[in-house]
């Protein structure tokens, strides 16, 4: 059973249909990137999953149960939502103590998570004095408090500096490595590409792409290979003679519909020196734009 | 429910709001008691009893309850609160009980302090005081009213949600609407949530010197229970239906 299952989820706010029949799954032990342009319905989907928004239709469940049906929700699901707020007059430590009390987590865990997110030294400062990055770390500490099996993170790198972003990437991988399911929404595509195993792309509330990162980056136009050679014309003719379409760019050829395993032997047969041979990988941004129709 | 109660009581203890409101209620009540007992020359036992009853604690407790609930929206902490406690009716219940307890604590601190200070000054001036039995009778009534006002404030905060609107609305209700109803239609006004019914339980006379009879303590208690139940139900219906976006 998937750790998270979104099934035919729809949510309408008045005349606006924010999410339309969305379905996807998140597996344990994997980091799933949840991508879409602004207003695509990502936050609404996550909020519906967490019981903060009532779906118009469909279900969003954790191991088959809705969030409010979980026995100890914060011990099973940790969530960081965009723009998480704190009472300005309460210290970071006290904020976590309150959540620990509500979730029946041991008080010792408060100092553990403060240490994990690197906020130990600022724990006794009031939240109103925290920088945006510190607030984000506190929100992450709150999500980790119950050592949950599922982590839901909405734009978790917002406000983090480069070392913080690198730390976040490590945290996501570490959590997935422990067998946890991680669902992370982000608009930083390059960042996501470095952290995720699976990708879900939505636009206008509808699913546009879902699969492993490799599948999504591969696109629908089959494999392609980039090959660099000092004799591009001769190799191009040989490849075209075998039915492949070839695009020329100086000493680099882009062979469409062929994998490196197919291009290499052709070069060997023709005795053409090859200086570089690699599958073409679309950037996540290119895949994203192709799937969402360049509307971001 | 117990973990939620612990969390709500911890929330109360970990910001300055509770201390500031308690200190304000205490300072204002002490000021009135000290001035009254120092300046007035003629005292009856009923005057003493009224003095220890008619403090400003109720208003501060009401505001505390409103701020405890509406503050969740003001500070945008409602999302993390509901994530920690997704059963929203239980959450509202825990808040209601917590602020009833907070009202009780504030009232205990204020009432016992003003009773001690007032009695000391009156004794020093050889003016009449009241015995321990009378003081205990005043105390329990104050505590019960305070608990209900704390709980009622949570309901209002959950219903109105905008903290400023809720506070201003309650001040208008307390200082303008209810007194006006008590003055114009005392038989209706004595059922009011912030003055009418509390006065019945506290045994206070009509503040406008009218002829109407206050509710008996038992009826006043039932009316207060009704007001808290109504406020809870209205706030619960709103909280349960609302999307937190």
Provide the descriptors you would attach to this structure in a database record:
A: Rossmann fold; Alpha-Beta Plaits; 2 domains; 4-stranded antiparallel β-sheet; B: 245 residues; mainly alpha; globular
Secondary structure layout:
The complex is a heterodimer of chains A (296) and B (245).
Chain A: E1 4-13, E2 16-26, E3 31-35, H1 42-49, E4 57-62, H2 73-76, E5 77-80, H3 92-103, H4 108-116, H5 132-144, E6 150-154, H6 162-177, E7 181-185, H7 189-195, E8 198-203, E9 206-212, H8 213-218, E10 224-228, H9 232-241, E11 245-249, E12 252-256, H10 260-270, E13 276-279, H11 284-292
Helix pairs in contact in A: 3-4, 4-5, 9-10
Chain B: H1 2-13, H2 17-39, H3 45-53, H4 57-74, H5 78-84, H6 88-124, H7 132-160, H8 163-184, H9 186-189, H10 196-202, H11 217-241
Helix pairs in contact in B: 1-6, 2-4, 2-6, 4-6, 4-7, 4-8, 6-7, 6-11, 7-11, 10-11
Care to describe what's here?
The complex is a heterodimer of chains A (296) and B (245). Chain A is of the alpha/beta class. Chain A has helices spanning 42-49, 73-76, 92-103, 108-116, 132-144, 162-177, 189-195, 213-218, 232-241, 260-270, 284-292; strands at residues 4-13, 16-26, 31-35, 57-62, 77-80, 150-154, 181-185, 198-203, 206-212, 224-228, 245-249, 252-256, 276-279. Chain A has 2 domains: 4-218, P-loop containing nucleotide triphosphate hydrolases (Rossmann fold); 224-279, Alpha-Beta Plaits, CATH 3.30.70. Helices cover 35% and strands 26% of the residues of chain A. In chain A, the strands form 3 sheets. A 6-stranded mixed beta sheet of chain A has the order 5-6-7-3-8-9, with helices on both faces. Chain A has a 4-stranded antiparallel beta sheet with strand order 11-12-10-13, with helices on one face. In chain A, strand 8 and strand 9 (206-212) form a beta hairpin. Chain A is elongated and about 70 Å long. Helices cover 79% and strands 0% of the residues of chain B. Chain B contains 11 helices and no strands. In chain B, helix 10 (196-202) crosses helix 11. Classes of the chains: A alpha/beta (296), B mainly alpha (245). The interface between A and B is medium-sized, with 34 and 26 residues.
